[in-house]
Every structure is written in C-alpha cells, then in structure tokens.
Design a protein that fits this description.
Residues 110-203 form the FecR protein domain. The protein is an alpha+beta fold. Strand 2 and strand 3 form a beta hairpin. Helices cover 32% and strands 32% of the residues.
Length: 318
C-alpha cells in the first residue's frame, strides 16, 4: 500500500464504488473487473477501495449511510459521495483516524452542523447558541450548573438573562469560559488552542492548567491549556461568518483557502508557489464557487477543477 497511486485511478475507483453500491447488475460487476485488470494502477486503487469498504462496514449507521447508502442518489448526492470517498481513499494508508478526521462528522453531539450550515438554538435558560459550519456542542444542564461543551468548530453565544443561580460556562479542550452577562465568539482549533472574541460584557477565561483572566468587550485572545495570549482589539474578520462573509486583509492565499474549505464540500488546494500571495476582500462563504471566481478574476491564479468541481487546485496563471 506504499506504492503511489494516481489521482485519476483513485477517482475512477471511487466512481466504481458508488456505482456498485447503488444496485449494480452483473454486467456492471464484469465491467468493473475489466477496468481493474486493465492497468496495475487500477488494481492498486481498487485494492485500496476494498480496504475502505471494510472500514466503512464498521462505522455507525449515522456515519456510513451518507457515504454508501443503498437508496438511489441524485446527481449531486453521487458527486458528494464520490468526493468523500476519494478523501477516504487518500486517507486509508494513514488508517482509520485519518479517515475519521477527513470526514469530521460530529454525528454523536447534542447539537451539530454540517459543512456550510449555520444553526441557531435557544436553550432552556434563554441562552442563544449559533453554530458555524461543521461545529458540534454538547449541552449539560444540571441542578448546579449550565455547561456548554464545544467539541469542535465555532459558536457565537449570547447568555440568557433569566436570573438563574446556576453558573453558565462554556468548555473547550483548552479550558473554561464563564460569561458575565455577554455576547462572545469561541472557536476551537485542532492544533490545541481556542480563540475568544468578546462583543458585549466580559468573559472569565480559565486555562485548564493556567491562571484565570477577565476579557472585556472589544477584546479577543487565543489560549491553550497553560497560557492566555496578550489581548488585542476584536477584529471584524473573526465574527464576519455571522453575516455570511469571509473577510481578508492581506491574508495569505493558503490561509484564505483553509478558511474557505471549512464551508465547502470537497478539497481545495493551493500550489506552493502561490501560498504566500496576499489577498484582500469580502468573500461570500455560502457561495464558494463565486469566491473562487473572484480570486481568479482579481489575482494571477487559475482554478483547475477535478471530480466535477469537488477537487480544486489554485495554480499560477500560465
């Protein structure tokens, strides 16, 4: 499995995988076998596809069905399935952990959103929680506390004003946040840090192994389990997602694409030659195709599309 496999062969294997899972005929199976035996790259790609099928067979139904569900798919669903399977095929050599990371499906959380989805929920105490794309939280209200656990992603929280004696807290992997009558934004990063931007009121930040600090309205910071970074003025870009926009002020192109990818199915990559290109503008997160068009029309880049648009690479304009 260490042999290199071409992206074309992986794409074709993904297409065959979807086709055969959708109630294929004997002729379809025979055609797949002819394809597999016609090229050593095809054989390698199909072997990897079979390994992926074995892994999917161990998944909870809530996670497996969206990828290889038996009901007949629409064209859009087939495209999405193929793109997700290609991501899985790329991840198989790294193991199940990489596949799970690539899918990032918070299927077991109390509240969650899909890629590109926003959702606002009012909790029993009147607290409002807005979840950004691909986010997940657990809500644990008891007789002594009101706890919101941010498992991944980003949320905007407006604390309820009910006179409830139980303290309201928001937990991330890096520490605890206690709002003091406030509106604030929290984003968790897989690298082991959490961003906080306070828009109204104040928030008491307590790192898991560090000293607490109050962050007042108009300030933002980043913290890990031990340290809280120096406070700085809240940047509009941090909460622009609540208005459907992605703001960039001389942002590196690879950083912009990483942000855009949070809201888009499929893969977007940047040629290393363009990684440090500085870009500015206001880009719509609900229409990633339009954002890519804006980049192509404004900067010296081209967008090369594969997998019917689910795999995009930004390259220098020739």
């Amino acid at each position: 499995m260490s042999a290199a496999i071409s992206s074309t062969a992986l794409e074709q294997a993904a297409e065959w995988l979807v086709r055969l899972q959708d109630g294929a005929s004997h002729e379809d199976h025979a055609a797949c076998e002819r394809w597999r035996s016609s090229d050593p790259q095809h054989a390698l790609a199909w072997d990897r596809a079979e390994r992926l099928m074995h892994k999917l067979g161990t998944l909870p139904p809530e996670l497996a069905k969206p990828v290889l569900g038996r009901p007949s798919r629409t064209t859009a669903q087939r495209r999405a399935a193929i793109a997700r399977i290609v991501a899985g095929l790329l991840a198989v050599p790294a193991g199940w952990g990489a596949w799970r990371y690539a899918q990032n499906q918070p299927w077991s959380a109390d509240l969650h959103t899909a890629v590109g989805e926003h959702r606002t929920v009012t909790l029993a105490d009147g607290t409002s929680v807005t979840l950004n794309t691909a986010s997940a939280v657990d809500v644990r209200f008891s007789a002594t506390e009101r706890l919101i656990v941010l498992r991944n992603g980003e949320i905007l929280v407006r604390s309820g004003h009910t006179g409830d004696p139980r303290p309201l807290r928001v937990a991330s992997a890096e520490g605890m946040l206690q709002p003091l009558g406030t509106l604030f934004n929290v984003r968790h990063y897989d690298c082991g840090s959490t961003d906080l931007a306070v828009l109204e009121g104040a928030v008491l930040v307590t790192p898991a192994q560090g000293q607490p600090q109050i962050v007042n309205a108009g300030s933002q910071t980043r913290f890990n389990t031990r340290h809280i970074a120096p406070l700085r003025a809240t940047e509009p870009a941090m909460t622009a997602w609540t208005t459907g926009m992605l703001l960039a002020d001389r942002m590196r192109l690879d950083q912009l694409v990483a942000e855009l990818s949070r809201y888009r199915h499929g893969l977007v990559r940047v040629d290393p030659a363009l990684a440090t290109l500085r870009v500015s503008g206001a880009f719509p997160i609900a229409d990633s195709e339009r954002t890519l068009d804006m980049l192509v029309s404004t900067y010296p880049v081209d967008a090369v599309q594969r997998l019917r648009g689910y795999w995009v690479t930004l390259v220098p304009r020739g």
